[in-house]
Design goal:
By secondary structure, this protein is an alpha+beta fold. The chain is 47% helix and 19% strand. The chain is built from 7 helices and 10 strands. The strands form 3 sheets. A 4-stranded mixed sheet has the order 1-4-5-8. Helix 3 packs parallel to helix 5. The longest helix is centred in the middle third of the chain and has 37 residues.
């Protein structure tokens, strides 16, 4: 996501410096938009960058930053102008710059393979040449990046749902109750049918949104929001049903489904909550 944003909006020097090493994952990046006081209302962010000569002095903090403290590049949405979205710019902050620090590693319900921390700026000095795009373009850059981010998040839900369905099918074939495998009970068969249908429909919506993003389709924003909304909710239901089909075993860490459930619950929050997705979708539908 960060690599795409640099490649799309960065200048030639920024692209040549960062894209090759980030595309190979030699260097990793973090997207820094959310703040303690601004989540869904991203345009109200309070992190401020004041220009002094050939540098910006950056002050503020970002919350729930994936990879925070472990990644090398931070694309920071900050206020360089007045209130509202047009006063927001995007700065590239490198790990090790004076004034950049990090909060404690968050103790999360899931996603524990990826660290999450606050990113803190205290008179952090950032060269003016680290502006991505132009001043005042940051909010548009941030929203554009979220289109791909929503496809990414939906795709992780697809993966968890597909694996959960696979293990649920195998479990119901070997687990016997009332003298027969669970898979021979009609209610179980109906549940598996619903799970499979939701999975195929979710995958189709995600792929459709990805094609729209690549083609720069006029409805890209709505289609990505629809895919994220539909896939994250339906795939969570698939995983939850898979856990239920395992009975008490599904609640044990000896079985993988409980981790899938914990890991993808956050997908209904990340990259814009699913409530915000519905606002975006409805706005697109009601445009004259």
């Amino acid at each position: 996501m960060v690599t795409w944003m640099i490649d799309t909006y960065g200048n030639e020097e920024q692209r040549s410096k960062w894209v090759p090493v980030m595309a190979t994952m030699e260097k990793l990046g973090s997207y820094c938009l959310t703040e303690p006081g601004s989540g869904s209302d991203a345009a109200s962010l309070a992190t401020v960058a004041r220009k002094e000569g050939n540098k910006f002095i950056l002050n503020g903090s970002k919350a729930f930053i994936s990879g925070g403290g472990d990644t090398d590049v931070y694309l920071v949405m900050c206020r360089t102008g007045g209130s509202g979205p047009k006063g927001i710019s995007c700065l590239l902050v490198e790990k090790g710059m004076p004034g950049l620090s990090f909060g404690k590693k968050e103790n999360k319900m899931g996603w524990n393979s990826q660290p999450t921390r606050a990113v803190i700026f205290e008179d952090c000095e950032v060269p003016v040449e680290n502006v991505i795009g132009v001043e005042g373009q940051g909010f548009n850059i941030a929203m554009s990046g979220l289109n791909g981010g929503r496809i990414n998040i939906a795709s992780t839900s697809l993966g968890a749902a597909e694996r959960s369905l696979d293990v649920a099918k195998e479990h119901t074939k070997v687990r016997k109750q009332f003298g027969m495998p669970l898979s021979q009970m009609q209610h179980t068969q109906f549940q598996l049918a619903q799970m499979g249908t939701k999975l195929v429909a979710s995958r189709a919506m995600v792929r459709n949104a990805a094609r729209a993003l690549d083609a720069k389709h006029a409805d890209t924003v709505s289609l990505c929001s629809m895919a994220k909304l539909f896939a994250t909710e339906n795939c969570f239901e698939i995983v939850n049903t898979a856990l239920q089909l395992h009975g008490g075993y599904g609640y044990l860490k000896d079985y993988p489904v409980e981790q899938f459930l914990r890991d993808i619950r956050v997908n209904q929050i990340l990259e814009g909550t699913n409530q915000v997705m519905q606002i975006i979708i409805s706005r697109g539908m009601l445009v004259d």
